[in-house]
User: Fold this.
Amino acid sequence: MNSLKQRILSAVKNDLLQIEKELAANLNPHLELVKQVAGHLLFAGGKRLRPLLMVLAAKTCGYEEPSVYRYSTIFEYLHAATLLHDDLVDGGSIRRGQPAAHTVWDAPTAVLTGDFLLARSLSIAAGAGIPAMIDVMANITENMSQGEIQQLHNRGSLDMTETEYYTVIERKTAVLFQGACRSGALIAGADRNCQQALARYGYHLGMAFQMADDLLDYTQTEQNTGKLPGADLREGKLTLPVIAALSQAGEADYQVMRRIVSSSGFSEQDFRTLIEYLHNCGGIDYTRQKAGEHVNMAKEALHTLNTAPAVTIMEDIADYALARKI
Amino acid sequence: MNSLKQRILSAVKNDLLQIEKELAANLNPHLELVKQVAGHLLFAGGKRLRPLLMVLAAKTCGYEEPSVYRYSTIFEYLHAATLLHDDLVDGGSIRRGQPAAHTVWDAPTAVLTGDFLLARSLSIAAGAGIPAMIDVMANITENMSQGEIQQLHNRGSLDMTETEYYTVIERKTAVLFQGACRSGALIAGADRNCQQALARYGYHLGMAFQMADDLLDYTQTEQNTGKLPGADLREGKLTLPVIAALSQAGEADYQVMRRIVSSSGFSEQDFRTLIEYLHNCGGIDYTRQKAGEHVNMAKEALHTLNTAPAVTIMEDIADYALARKI
Assistant:
């Protein structure tokens, strides 16, 4: 474990414990089955980054009430709800190192449990009694569903542009990170400047985080990430490493990559070849550079804030978003 | 068209026009595909009963602002969202006389469009700035998802009790009707008594409406309802006409019904036989009687209110819930 990760984990150890407790306490289903299906995904060891961001954002604004942990679960339940639907949509079979819920139970159960988790997050948000937090949730859910639909219908297309890619990851990831951070400011009753700074931090962190995720799909092993490498491509999803490599490649390199990328059942050898080309044609470097720009913008957004210890942790998290191996 | 229906339709003609306008105006998707998929279901001629109930409830409380039409769309979008997910869960292939969305497009598109419609309804509700309305929505969505899961996992079971049936229809139908009526009172700023009376009306109307729906599946033709008769049974759903008939039948009759009900691929002749038995063993009458009790309780709930014209229409709607042929 590298020292950056160690430093973050030791600083947020108690926060993560509290979040974990609240995730179990607030699930609150009427039915045992819902508990099992939701729990299968929820308690398979996620990073809890989204609830943690809300907690840290609230602390940054001086809010130390323990109720923040309860409200922070909103963003993990919401995240889990979208994972349940997305795995089904993408045909993903492994999640957090375990078989995806729709393969353990069935597709209908996964759809309805996702709906339940979304409803649960809405209930908890309603309990906060802050109308602006409901606006945040509405914005997140509208963006996420449309981002996924857009990704679904770009599936298998080689024509996806860099701009279209940014729109997709903004909707499917950055808006949720942004909402978690903004909600931390809202629960703390922070002023508008503070709200906007934290929202900006969350947005850029989310962009960097998703780009790093898309990089890991070409640079890491299944052992590390709990996902099969190349999963995106197998699901017909073009991400920035490929989009950038294709657009920067000469004709010959382009044709080699195009052949691999457009065949749905590429071999392991094909995949290794593609990775080489992504490196040689600059797709990996370009993605890392763009993610790095968002890391910097996230950290810059924090500069207008005070120097609370939570701000230092949030800076570390921004660095870690790109440095991580998992 | 019978005269009760005629009377209702002529009294709410303008309301329905306004609701229809707002449904088109507020859909507001970023993507053309979402518009098509959502529109396929939304504009295939639903009864618009849920938004209409909100409008009438608001009028009962003296609220005449045109913004009520915008807010009323919440309940049609929410309803459409659950139909998209439920048709997928149930494998239903026809909806409102048209092929279901998941058969025209695909399952993932139907799931995500449902998510979008839910998000849309949340956005509009957030815009009302009434926290209690968000509580209503959270309650509806939690109940509906769990009601569907419960129904899914009772599928094919002959052991479903009358009480379990009531729990399912309460969650999947009555809570939404109740929420639409309560929201009408909330938007009007009505007092607690008025809120509760309207919520009680909505609840009992919803129970009666769903029982009548479950009756129609055994008493009407596809031409009338736009759905294949016997669809519930084909999807493995036991409803009150069957539950009551099974529990009241003698051993010989029980065995005949049991054979038909437990075979997934029953013939048309089998289905006609079953309907005869449902009549002879009292399943149809019992369901009609129970639905009638809820119609009466719905109307009784209105007695504490004033004598606004909207109240008369709501009484007619309660009668029509059971009298209708479609």
Notes: The first helix of chain B runs from residue 3 to 11. Strands of chain B lie at 94-95, 98-99. The interface with chain A takes residues 29-31, 33-34, 85, 88-90, 107-109, 111-113, 115-116, 118-120, 122-123, 125-126, 129, 131, 134-135, 137-139, 141-142, 144-146, 148-150, 152-153 of chain B (CB under 8 Å).
